[in-house]
Design brief:
Strand order of the largest sheet: 1-3-2
Number of strands: 6
Number of helices: 18
Helix content: 55-70%
Shape: extended
Strand content: 5-15%
């Protein structure tokens, strides 16, 4: 928002209708912000079921009532959650996932903005300005260089950078190494923490913008009066416009950058190096900062799944049956609107229309007839004789049965302290006991139960030992693409 839009009318409208401002004005703002920050923002939780969220809120309400009295916050936890998700509040988003009837809750971008603003009210012992100034200069330099079309100027800028690098190399080789002092380290580290948290908050706004674009497309479908072919052409253009928008391209570039395993390893190594510095340790940084890039990955993956789900729902929305049903519903609504407008000027005496009362068809179990076989079975009078062949029954006891539940527990335990793990790492921690059958079971779990990513360009060797009938042990090897299990 620019300064020119901060007029009285705009601010008065924001004060009345913006969810973030309504949250700050609420009498229960301390309860709402503290609870939502503890449950969603601090642990980077994107979605939570109604039962788990209500249980967590009930615990906090119980603790507050012990301090403030039994009359404090008289409603139930679920009633508060539904109230916060109501359209007149808009602090939580309540929705249902496909295939489940349990409500799910997530923060709205406005709520996260309000929480972020409240966290800045706390007094800071150290306020750094140098790092932000350097970031501003670097951004201006990137925009200036990135928009320069004159090859001569671009070449001159590259030569200047090369001269600076050569000068820096010569100075380091001579033993003159310039180091940041403790103040510079703290300044840059606080800038990094603030930007890292803002990046996590941006994901919810990106996801909300994708949902708004998808809703506009659906409204266009519902109000369409022409043929389906023209509609499909317009819808496909809208989907491409979403992907090619500034936000779509920026998110795709960020996602491709973060998915690089080399970038992840570099981020982990640099975070470990920085957090080990004494000046940074004196700031008591958040322990979750060590895995902040995995939080980015998890938040980005959730946004990716949301966009994919919206596309899938839109395809179903456009199939023939749904198309005809939507057209029929819209025709009925237009008929109701036309009749209502005709009756608005002169209301008739008596009832306007009658609607049949809805009722449920109840069938008692004892009203159903018993099963009657269609054909009477014929039982032949045969005697069973013992065979002469001597068959080894040991093969019946040598069947290979893979315990899939045990493999699932092993994968979940490996993902407790990390956001992702590879198939090779899983097998190194717990070697294969049943050979190829167990390896195939891991791959089935990756496609059916867990979220996985496969890198075709990064093959990995998998090894396991096999005991032959003569007692000799052999090593078997399989070369597979890199399989990554993710939470």
């Amino acid at each position: 928002m620019t300064d020119s839009t901060l007029d009285f009318a705009t601010l008065d409208a924001l004060r009345a209708y913006h969810p973030a401002w309504r949250l700050l004005r609420s009498d229960h703002a301390p309860l709402i912000t503290s609870f939502l920050h503890r449950v969603f923002v601090a642990p980077n939780v994107r979605v939570m079921g109604a039962a788990d969220l209500a249980e967590a809120l009930e615990d906090q309400l119980y603790a507050l009532r012990q301090t403030l009295g039994e009359t404090a916050f008289p409603k139930s936890a679920l009633a508060y959650l539904n109230d916060w998700a109501a359209p007149d509040k808009g602090w939580l988003r309540k929705f249902y996932r496909p295939g489940t009837d349990e409500p799910q809750f997530d923060l709205t971008p406005a709520t996260e903005k309000a929480i972020a603003w409240l966290t800045q009210l706390a007094e800071r012992q150290f306020v750094g300005t140098e790092s932000r100034l350097l970031v501003l200069f670097d951004l201006l330099r990137q925009m200036s260089e990135g928009s320069e079309t004159d090859p001569a100027k671009r070449l001159a800028e590259l030569q200047r950078k090369r001269d600076e690098i050569d000068t820096e190399i010569a100075r380091v080789m001579s033993g003159d190494v310039t180091l940041l002092d403790d103040t510079g380290l703290k300044d840059r580290f606080q800038q990094f923490m603030r930007s890292a948290r803002e990046l996590l908050a941006d994901f919810r706004e990106v996801e909300s913008n994708f949902r708004r674009l998808d809703r506009q497309v659906r409204e266009r479908i519902a109000l369409w009066d022409g043929g389906k072919g023209a509609l499909l052409e317009e819808i496909m253009g809208a989907r491409e416009a979403i992907a090619d928008s500034d936000q779509g391209r920026s998110f795709r570039a960020f996602w491709e950058f973060l998915l690089s395993s080399r970038r992840q390893e570099e981020l982990s190594a640099r975070l470990d190096q920085v957090l080990a510095l004494p000046a940074i340790g004196a700031l008591n940084p958040d322990i979750r900062l060590r895995r902040v890039h995995y939080d980015w990955l998890e938040a980005g993956e959730h946004t990716q799944r949301t966009v994919a789900l919206l596309s899938q729902q839109l395809r179903r929305f456009l199939d023939d049956q749904a198309w005809l049903e939507n057209r029929r519903i819209m025709d009925l609504l237009h008929g109701i609107e036309s009749k209502a407008l005709a009756l608005r000027s002169k209301l008739p005496d008596g009832p306007v229309m009658e609607i049949a009362e809805s009722r449920a068809d109840i069938e008692l179990p004892l009203e159903r007839p018993l099963f009657t076989p269609a054909v009477k079975p014929v039982i032949a009078d045969l005697s069973v004789e013992a065979g002469d062949d001597d068959i080894d029954a040991g093969a019946l006891f040598e069947q290979v049965v893979v315990d899939r539940a045990l493999l699932m527990r092993h994968i979940r335990q490996s993902l407790q302290d990390r956001a992702q793990t590879t198939l090779r790492e899983l097998i190194e921690r717990r070697p294969l006991e049943q050979g190829l059958a167990e390896l195939v079971a891991y791959l089935q779990l990756g496609s059916e139960t867990f979220a996985t990513a496969i890198k075709e360009d990064r093959p990995e060797p998998i090894e396991w030992s096999v005991t032959l009938p003569d007692g000799e042990t052999r090593i078997r090897r399989a070369r597979l693409p890199r399989v990554i299990f993710m939470r």
